[in-house]
Amino acid sequence: MRSFRPPCLMGLLWLGLVASAVADPEVREEARQAQRSQAELQERIDAADDESRAMLEELRELERDERRLARENAELAPRLERQAASLERREQALDTLEETRDALPALQERMIDRLERWVENDMPFLREERLARVASLRSQADELSAAERWERIVEAWRAELEYGSEVDAWRGYLGEGDSRREVDYLRLGRVGFYYLTPDGRAGRVWQADAGSWAALDETQRREIRNGLRIARDRRAPELLSVPLSQPLESVEDDT
């Protein structure tokens, strides 16, 4: 059986103080304020931690953006260098554009003059038509833009060049006035130019060196008749034995 020991005096006094403190309203209010202050402090600490984490994440995102931009700049650098070089070339071309525009009319006139001399010195086939084409390049100069006139000049040159690879036949007139008569012309590129009378009894070949027509014999006229049929698609192509109007070396020099 336990013996009973009465509480000591100091313990009784402490219990009495605590009880009185709890019972005191002011003390309870101070305790509640202390708890609120502690809670607010903890909230600020938590908020500070959240802000710090957000700032840290933002910093990391900025670092990632910086690395990405560095890579993109490294990739773009060669392209930018090429574009800069291209712009420089264009600027140089623009600098010389005005000089080119100033020189273009003179160049066009030289090409027209050369084309006219070529027609005048060439075999006299379709001469009026060809000279009229050259004359139109001058008469329409004021009506056309520089680009349109240039295109017309190129077309005229192309037409003249194409004559060198064509076989052509047509009926036309030879001579003027009372001596004017109808004949059948045959042209073999720029190496042969001939004509026969409609009855086939007379024919000539143009001689470029002499600048005149020379008579054809019966064998040569027969070959020219065959050439006319071939040109008019009335006979299968075959090798013709005919005199040439000018040596091939002369034709090569002209072109």
Task: Give structural attributes.
single chain, 255 residues, alpha+beta, rod-shaped
Describe the structure in your own words.
The longest helix has 97 residues, at 25-121. The protein has 6 helices and 5 strands, in the order ααααβββββαα. Helices cover 64% and strands 12% of the residues. With 255 residues, it is an alpha+beta fold. It is rod-shaped and about 155 Å long. Among the domains are: 102-161, no CATH class; 167-254, no CATH class. The model has no long low-confidence stretch (mean pLDDT 81). It has helices at 9-23, 25-121, 127-139, 146-163, 218-231, 248-254; strands spanning 167-174, 181-188, 192-196, 203-207, 212-215. Helix 2 packs across helix 3, helix 2 crosses helix 4 (146-163) and helix 3 (127-139) runs antiparallel to helix 4 (146-163). A 5-stranded antiparallel sheet has the order 1-2-3-4-5, covered by helices on one side.
Helix content: 55-70%
Record the strand order, biggest sheet.
1-2-3-4-5
Kindly name the structural category: alpha+beta
The helix/strand series, from N terminus to C terminus, equals: HHHHEEEEEHH
Major sheet size, sense and barrel closure: 5 strands, antiparallel
Strand content: 5-15%
**What would the principal axes of the Cα set say about the shape?**
rod-shaped
> What is the mean pLDDT?
81
- State the assembly state of the protein chains: single chain
Number of helices: 6
